[in-house]
């Protein structure tokens, strides 16, 4: 099989505006990477604090829980604050996709027993969103989970334990659909403690105006 081109050039360190992010390749095709120190402690806390207020509301408004995802979540507005802008820029540089292709950052909160069952992040061919489909994902861990809450890619044998400020990255914009389907993944149930993540999904084409 011929080698396909990945979106991300593989490096062991990415330097973004003097912010150094170290990287480990977990799998090459499809490309799966672990990044360390994507966010510092203060940035993680900012995400948790500002998301927490809004999660409470969305929980009340949406009592019906999804079968696949039992955590609660919220999206930040694009360009919502100077700190969100700085972090969105860092993420866009790291993922090598222009910020105009970035969805709003999503924060998820899991309590014990809550999980995100196996799924793909890209949309199926019958979904209206598939004409401008997602191409890559960055999941940033915002806290340490006492037990459980690992992200797994079962078809690649990858299990990632949440470490505050670190992230898992994978991409699924390959011509060979079989490679894309290897990115099936899940967030395992939290057993003890709680779990906070921020997820960035990138699209193939622009979805933001004004850039
Ligand atoms: O929480 C996790 O580990 C997985 C999150 C996830 O799959 C997503 O946000 O798309
Ligand atoms: Fe996902």
UniProtKB/TrEMBL annotation:
Superkingdom, taxonomy of origin = Bacteria
| Organism of derivation | Paenibacillus polygoni
- Keywords linked to the UniProt accession: Dioxygenase, Iron, Metal-binding, Oxidoreductase, Vitamin C
Domain (Fe2OG dioxygenase) spans: 101-204
The yes or no answer to whether the keyword Nucleus is present is no
Q: Enumerate the PANTHER family for this protein.
A: PROLYL 4-HYDROXYLASE ALPHA SUBUNIT, TRANSMEMBRANE PROLYL 4-HYDROXYLASE
Query: What cofactors are annotated for this protein?
Result: L-ascorbate
Q: Does the keyword Metal-binding apply?
A: yes
> What's the protein called, per UniProt?
2OG-Fe(II) oxygenase
Q: Which Pfam families match?
A: 2OG-FeII_Oxy_3
């Amino acid at each position: 099989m011929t080698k396909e081109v990945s979106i991300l050039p593989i490096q062991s360190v990415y330097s973004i505006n003097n912010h150094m992010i170290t990287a480990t390749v977990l799998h090459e095709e499809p490309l799966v990477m672990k990044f360390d120190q994507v966010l510092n402690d203060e940035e993680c806390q900012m995400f948790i604090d500002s998301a927490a207020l809004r999660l409470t509301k969305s929980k009340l408004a949406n009592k019906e829980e999804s079968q696949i995802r039992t955590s609660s979540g919220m999206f930040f507005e694009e360009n919502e604050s100077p700190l969100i802008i700085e972090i969105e820029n860092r993420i866009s540089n790291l993922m090598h996709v222009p910020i105009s292709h970035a969805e709003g950052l999503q924060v998820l909160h899991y309590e014990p027993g809550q999980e995100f069952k196996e799924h793909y992040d890209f949309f199926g061919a019958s979904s209206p969103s598939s004409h401008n489909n997602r191409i890559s994902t960055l999941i940033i861990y915002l806290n340490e989970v006492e037990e459980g809450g690992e992200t797994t890619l079962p078809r690649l044998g990858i299990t990632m334990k949440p470490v505050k400020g670190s992230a898992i990255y994978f991409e699924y914009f390959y011509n060979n659909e079989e490679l894309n389907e290897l990115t099936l993944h899940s967030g395992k149930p939290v057993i003890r403690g709680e779990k906070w993540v921020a997820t960035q999904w990138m699209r193939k084409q622009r979805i933001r105006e004004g850039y």
